[in-house]
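Sequence, structure tokens passed on for absentees:
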Amino acid sequence: MYFVAIALLVLAGAENTQETPGERNSLIYDYFQQAADATTPALPWNASSSGEHDAWRRAFEPEFLRLLGRNPEPVPLNVEWTDEKMETALFTRQKIYVQSEADYWVPVYYFVPKNSAGKRPAMICLHGHSGILPYIDEGTDQERQKSREHELDYAVKFAEAGYVSAAIVQRGWNETRHETPHSCHRVTMDAFLLGMTPVGLRTWDAMRVVDFLQTQDNVDPDRIGAAGLSGGGTTTLFLAARDERIRLAMIAGYYCTFRDSIFTIHHCICNCVPGIMQVGEMSDVAALIAPRPVLIISGDEDTIFPIDATRRAYAALEKTYAVLGASGNLESDFFEGGHQWSNRKSLDFLKTHFGTP
């Protein structure tokens, strides 16, 4: 009877302390939000001098590169020049393929301004999830309309202003795709299974295009920059962070915080770099670019990269540039609008840091 009484008391206590079904958390979204709140990055930027910044960089950069995944095996630089050409009053454009690895060639639309005497600055231009066509002002009527409304043709605008530009077809898009209009899911799943990431592969491809640009007689090898919107902004940020040959970066419709954008809001899986939030935030990745010039472009109505979080991330990056005595190299264009490019400051930013061609 004694043991029965004890058992009844235990059961009674359990009933009194038992959570109601409404108090339990069986929601996976809520679970991950709480898990993110409990995650403290291991290597956040927190320097107060250039020496401390250098020490942070020596610790952060190897982890950053490790998270981008296994690199392809390097191959000699090979370029195939196709017969696909077009010409305007201001530039010529030719389709080329740059060999990125043994079994993959990067499609590139290569813009060269006319009357380009001497070496000029060059811009690598990276498209988002609309594919390459509206970014070079081509495609269907709908794609061309989107190009105009969202100012997607920055590769064209740069060329018209006298800058060499190379518009890359990112892996998983247009002619590189697998079955669907874009195949980021296939790129991502297969890359993960092979120890790679889409961001790692796409930045690798862009680095091979840098290799190509540095061989061109009309390109100044010390004035190569990168620009991108949305998924192109992703690649631009990570590219400039891993390759110091990118001397200037324009990041549009992407720079924010991982916590408030990629993690919290539905995004394409290709944005995922496994484990990145355990190491640092987006402002920490951007701190690898400092003190090189960076222009952050973001619309105040961008629903997938909330402007409040973008402003916080920008304020964090301002501290980095201030510590390095390079505040003049960081600029923002927070415009009235949505998820799109803005040309309000882009050409002036180029002229300030790369000069007028």
About this structure: Residues 1-17 have pLDDT under 50 and may be disordered. The CA atoms of residues 128 and 231 lie 4 Å apart. The beta strands are 79-87, 91-101, 104-113, 120-126, 164-168, 219-229, 246-252, 294-299, 330-335.
